[in-house]
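Project standup — Tuesday

K.O.: blocked on the structure for the chain from last sprint. Re-posting the sequence here as requested.
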Amino acid sequence: MRNLLASSERGLVDLQAADVDWLHQLVADWQVIADLSVSDLVLWARTDTNRFVATAHCRPATGATVHPEDVIGRRMPAAREAMALEALANKQVVVASDPEWTGTTAVREEYVPVMRGSRVIAVMTRETAVGVMRGGRLVDRPQEDLADAICHMIAQGAFPIRGAATGLRHGTPRVADGVLRLDNEGVVTYASPNASSCFHRLGLPGDIEGGHLAEAVTRIIPERTPVDETMAVVLMGRQAWLTELEIRGVYLSVRCIPLTDDGQRAGALLMVRDVSELRRREQVLMNKDATIREIHHRVKNNLQTVSALLRMQARRATNDETREALAEAERRVATIATVHAALSQNVDETVDFDEVFVSVLRGAAAVATAGGSVNTRIEGRFGIVDADAAQALATVLAELVTNAVEHGLEGRDGTVTVTARRDGDDLTVHVIDDGVGLEPGTVLTGLGTRIVSTLVQGELRGSIDWLPVRDIHGRRGRGTDVVLRATLKASCPR
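H.V.: unblocked you, prediction finished:
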């Protein structure tokens, strides 16, 4: 009972993996029963000493609980075990003849055997406060009948229904949102006030009770309107699926739980929720996301245009110094365009920097190589980086790689290795070349160095150091090790 039982109680219950999976499915969907009957549900498993221990507990969302305290891990009182054993032996629901007085209220108890196949694997108790008023509302007999029907399905091994939509999905209807009961022909025999209001907003006139729901909804759907292919079987109560209806801007989410009795169809329970406001907000967010992606796409195109113009101007330049300056500017613009290209592909203003840096490294090394053969290597992972940090980080690393190729290797064969180590928001990067290295006391004053220092201190909230390469014994070797430490704001690497 891994995730159902308190850690201190594990090992007391011996069930097959398939049995545990069945109980997990029950617990995932039993909120419906608790809400329909305004009852507490407790799942009891039999221990190796033939006692019962509480492994899961569900309180109603439609009224007050009878167990404000936590009951998981408790043993069933000996006076109640006889009824639990009767439910196990007879494989039938057992209702206590007299309510149990808790000191503040009278509680009616039902013992439901949980069947999987032909075996009873646990007992579920349904504990309901007795009285005309329950949880601040009048007792709704049709909804209690629906809860009874599902409990009998549990005792027959027909519930939970495999593949059924549960309450874990966004916008899935709940009992409080609206409940309907259908007969075998899809005719509405009961509709809660909230359910009636939902279908009235959709466009169904008058009282929906007594009408064929699927036919009534089909009549009001405008021509050439796209319809969810699951709509018909859900509105007729045939499949345990979730569907969505949309008519003139009104969205209803409808969930179906087919009811059975001894293997025969016995109608269906439908829950309905008006999700129009949810869908409107989602549409607004989608429009904003699309706008942001389009902006990044246009910025990328504009930067590529600027890059092309700089490249054309560099070709026309007659002065070598001017040509080199324009080439450097073109490379920097292309690096920023690469980040915007990645941002235009997602909606959360973050990028997988490992994918982006492959292009940045290849471009920087190619542009800077004037002679010789330069190999580039990437070790470690950068992870997910937010948009602002990605722009600065890409620019800084492109400058460092270019500097390593141009000045560290100076046109000779060599290798530039970039290693990244991510620890939460902290990132450490080494850009290592096996070139001539820096002379002690060298002061770096170039434009690239100033760009790097400004971005590291301002945008990346970090530091940078130029160090000589050291071997495993700490002796000075060939090349330079540039150590970049940055503080990022995005999540850890995937």
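K.O.: great, moving the ticket to review. Residues 132-137, 490-494 have pLDDT under 50 and may be disordered. The first strand starts at residue 40 and ends at 46.
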